[in-house]
Design goal:
The chain is α+β, with helices and mostly antiparallel strands and 694 residues long. Helix content is 20%, strand content 32%. The structure holds alpha-D-galactopyranose (GLA).
Length: 694
């Protein structure tokens, strides 16, 4: 019997696989980084025989299949007209260096080969799988796992998301149970629950977290295996018969990004780093994220060149740096019944085209951005009248509309070519620096994988032809936020719900997966359109500060006081954006309803503190900052707050000092006892600077 160990390391985690003879490598370890000389015992050596088992009992490997003694979750369900469905792979080749590993498996009887790839980027493990049909008949794939990951028996809680339009990324914390868990998205795009993703907590508080980098149907399962562990799988969801692999053809899964971390915050930081490493910034570098204004809630469909020019003037005077003309600018688009598909300016609203407006915006020192929804078509459009066959349709079935629109079949070359030409013509004719790329419905009938790959190909083609363009991805708010499309975009619209109290948890949950510079966070109106609730301008601004700051209203509707408050927060955002973006982010809670977000490092932190609900304690809670340096003393300075911390309610001396000249405290005190907070009324926030006091 030959044994070989395969090991790769991330910055603070390790995976170890065990190869026995030519068998598929066994999962032996995924956890905290081990010393280089740690030698695990072989699994065979430590596993006693169990009754009613095969004599050679299979254990969890990196690509488990059913049929020869592994009765747990399979990584593959595939067949050729019912044959070749029980697969048995052996290892053909392995390539391994310190950070990456690729394993080639082969089943000569079923005529299949598989390449599994694992690579650490920082502390995030990227895993992906490719299957090739080596036979001479087509292979139907019902399921293939992008990754099969082991979770130890001491995992106790699982946090994952659900959501809907105007209520994205709702976090659920549930106990891990041996009944298992299956989460499946069948909507045809990522959806308002976010991508397949979860955070699994162990009894000691450490975290296993993973997300699938894919914008379509997806499946995530956690199954208990009575060998004593959970098996965690991610993959695409296919409709029956969808994936038919021709002889010689290869199917590649999306990536899974996974991390083992000592805390929820380090797991999110590993995700942020992995997504940043894939970010496609023009010229390979993120520019400071410009203050953004979007026309949607200001005008909906009711705008024209003169109104937009005046809007641009008002925006520029507030310090806005990018203006995005949202829906309603193109031919025949006066409401949501018509126009999608006809991507030329509406002759009544924009008789001179968009160039005069874009030039006006540019002359004011702002960038001009434009909303498009390329994958959609209204039946009342020239495009649909010319090409009704371009809309997705199941043979002999009706086509269900949603928001009065149909979905174009993105698998068709002619559809993608026509869409590319329409977008390319616009980008050539008008100085557009930014596209808000929307997708306002679920897919019925299903478009499947081909639809997603078609959309990716179109975005990639637009970016290749116009590399200076930035793209914001939107799908009725945050319906297409995932690490797959993050490789081809520069911002996500988080939600159409601008109620600051809805946004607060929603944005915090998105930040578990995606870094703050990619999360569009706008100051909306009061009362807010989605919920009719009223919130102060300052509180709305403070909540928008936690992402890529923007405005979703017409400044003409503001009184002088609110305009001045907004303009102050815009200036603050510009001062702070280098610290808010690209660095480490921590989130936490303090007692009695306080939530906070910190950006920076142990040298210097920017701390955002929010109180949504009224206080119930007589004395405000303290806020512990465990990321600080216990050996240092820190100066705490007040940068901005939405409350008068000196008058109402009355504050302790400490806070009056923080506000006026700063106060210092020992790192060790801040880490273990915490920062004393001022008394705060509901719907208020503080922005603080905490830096080593030299
Ligand atoms: C979606 C988006 C909004 C806006 C509208 C336009 O709902 O989420 O921000 O762009 O479409 O129709």
């Amino acid at each position: 019997m030959t044994h070989r160990w395969l090991r790769i390391d991330g910055s603070s985690s390790t995976i170890i696989l065990e190869c026995v003879n030519k068998g598929v490598p066994l999962w032996r370890y995924w956890g905290p980084k081990l010393r280089a000389d740690v030698k695990p015992p072989s699994l065979g050596q430590v596993t006693p025989p169990a009754s009613f088992s095969l004599d050679a009992r299979p254990q969890l490997n990196v690509f488990p299949t059913n049929g020869f003694g592994w009765f747990g979750a399979p990584a593959l369900r595939a067949h050729r007209d019912g044959a070749d469905s029980a697969q048995l792979f052996s290892t053909e080749d392995v390539r391994c260096d310190e950070r990456s590993l690729s394993i080639i498996l082969c089943d000569r009887v079923a005529a299949l080969s598989v390449t599994l790839s694992f690579a650490f980027e920082g502390n995030a493990l990227r895993a992906t799988t490719a299957l090739t049909n080596e036979g001479d008949r087509p292979l139907s794939i019902d399921w293939i796992a992008a990754a099969t990951l082991p979770l130890p028996a001491n995992t106790i809680h699982r946090q994952a998301f659900t959501g809907r339009h105007n209520g994205e990324f709702v976090l659920h914390n549930e106990r891990m149970t041996q009944a298992g868990w299956h989460q499946e998205n069948r909507r045809g795009l990522t959806g308002h629950s976010g991508p397949a993703a979860a955070f699994v907590e162990t009894t000691t508080g450490t975290i296993y977290a993973a997300q699938l980098a894919w914008s379509g149907n997806a499946i995530q399962t956690i199954e208990w295996n009575d060998e004593g562990h959970f098996v965690w799988q991610f993959g695409e969801g296919f409709t029956p018969g969808e994936i038919m692999l021709s002889p010689g053809e290869t199917h590649s899964t999306p990536d899974v990004i996974a991390t083992y971390a000592f805390s929820m915050n380090s797991a999110a930081q590993a995700f942020h780093a992995a997504i940043r490493a894939r970010s496609p910034w023009p010229d390979s570098r993120m520019r400071p994220r410009p203050v953004h204004i979007n026309s949607w809630e200001a005008f909906y469909f009711d705008h024209d060149e003169a109104r937009l020019m005046a809007f641009a003037d008002r925006a520029a005077s507030l310090g806005v740096e990018r203006l995005v003309l949202d829906d309603g600018w193109f031919k025949g688009r006066h409401n949501d019944m018509s126009g999608l598909g006809d991507w030329t300016p509406d002759p009544d609203k924009y008789p001179n085209g968009l160039k005069p407006l874009a030039d006006h915006v540019t002359a004011l020192g702002m960038e001009f951005g434009l909303w498009v929804e390329p994958e959609m078509v209204n039946e009342d459009s020239d495009l649909f009248r010319a090409h009704p066959e371009w809309a997705l349709q199941a043979a002999d079935r009706s086509r269900p509309t949603a928001r009065n629109q149909l979905v174009l079949n993105m698998a068709r070359d002619d559809v993608r070519d026509a869409l590319f030409k329409a977008i390319d013509d616009l980008l050539n004719a008008v100085p557009i620096r930014y596209l808000k790329w929307d997708h306002n419905r679920d897919l019925a009938p299903p478009g499947g994988r081909a639809q997603i790959l078609g959309a990716y190909a179109l975005i990639d083609r637009v970016r290749a032809a116009h590399p200076h363009i930035e793209i914001e991805i939107c799908a009725g708010g945050g319906g297409r936020i995932d690490a797959g499309i993050a490789e081809r975009c520069h911002r996500f619209w988080a939600s159409d719900n601008l109620d600051a109290n809805v946004r607060l948890p929603l944005q915090r949950n998105i930040l578990r997966l995606i870094p703050p510079e990619l999360m569009g966070a706008h100051v909306g109106t009061s009362p807010t359109h989605a919920t009719s609730r009223m919130q102060s301008m300052a509180y709305r601004c403070a909540v928008a500060l936690s992402g890529h700051f923007g405005i979703e209203m017409d400044p003409a509707t503001l009184d002088d006081n609110d305009r001045a408050v907004l303009s102050d927060w815009i200036a603050l955002y510009k001062d702070l954006r280098d610290r808010l973006h690209q660095g480490n982010v921590w989130q936490g809670t303090a007692n009695d309803g306080i939530v906070w977000q910190a950006h920076g490092d142990a040298q210097r932190l920017l701390l955002l503190v929010y109180r949504e609900a009224p206080e119930t304690w007589r004395t405000p809670s303290a806020l512990t900052l465990s990321m600080l340096d216990a050996t240092k003393r820190y100066l705490i300075r007040h940068l901005k707050s939405t409350v008068s911390t000196t008058h109402s309610p009355a504050q302790a001396d400490f806070w009056c000092d923080v506000q006026h000249k700063g106060q210092s405290l020992d790192g060790e005190w801040l880490m273990h006892i915490g920062l004393p907070l001022p008394s705060m009324n509901a719907e208020n926030a503080l922005v603080l600077d905490i830096a080593i006091d030299c």
